[in-house]
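Hi support team,

I'm filing this because I wasn't sure whether my run with calcium ion finished correctly. The job status page said complete, but I'd like someone to confirm that the output block is well-formed before I use it downstream. Pasting the exact inputs I used:
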Amino acid sequence: MAQKQILVVEDEQPIREMIAFGLRRAGFDVREAEDCRTARAALVDRRPDLMLVDWMLPDNSGLELTRALKRERDTRDLPIIMLTARAEEIDKVAGLDSGADDYVTKPFSPRELIARVNAVLRRSGPTDENETIRFDDLTLDRAAHRVMVGDNGVPLGPTEYRLLEFFMTHPERVYSREQLLDRVWGGNVYVEERTIDVHIRRLRRALEPHRYDHLVQTVRGAGYRFSARTER
Ligand code: CA
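And here is everything the job wrote out:
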């Protein structure tokens, strides 16, 4: 497999170097940028496989950069992980719908960061319609259209199945009700946003006997997220 390239956009040099060092040791090809302008220039030069973008940058906010890149055709699919200084900022980032694929709060260990980078790279790759998606003992068999926990089937209605399939293929990211309507129901149908809450409740109830209901998380003021992490 070709070496994956990561562009690190962070103005604080010691942090940037620490990140770059950890990533290089993990086998990534790393480029560094200290502000939005340099990051833009680096993108024109060569498109990386993933970007790490700090929230506070000297010339513009990392949030603005992320939103802009997620709007542009050439960079829309480029995975971005935002680095934030405080946990509360994660809610803000999510609420503002920056389009970031994940968020990491400082301080973080190189190991944690690399785990997140690998997770985002994995799910941004091409998805196989027939693959089986696993989370712990929870498996979703896309070929058979079946959800199991160990040997036990989890009975789900068609909408709950599609919701779970979407969540399991897009973990760790907050989706607003509107985005879920678009992605799970398809943009054309008329469904009230509170209908989503009903299906979320049904999905949680089906997962509850297996103790996986906590994976479907409500993010106040923002929407829903599928995550094993309980911190907010
Ligand atoms: Ca900064």
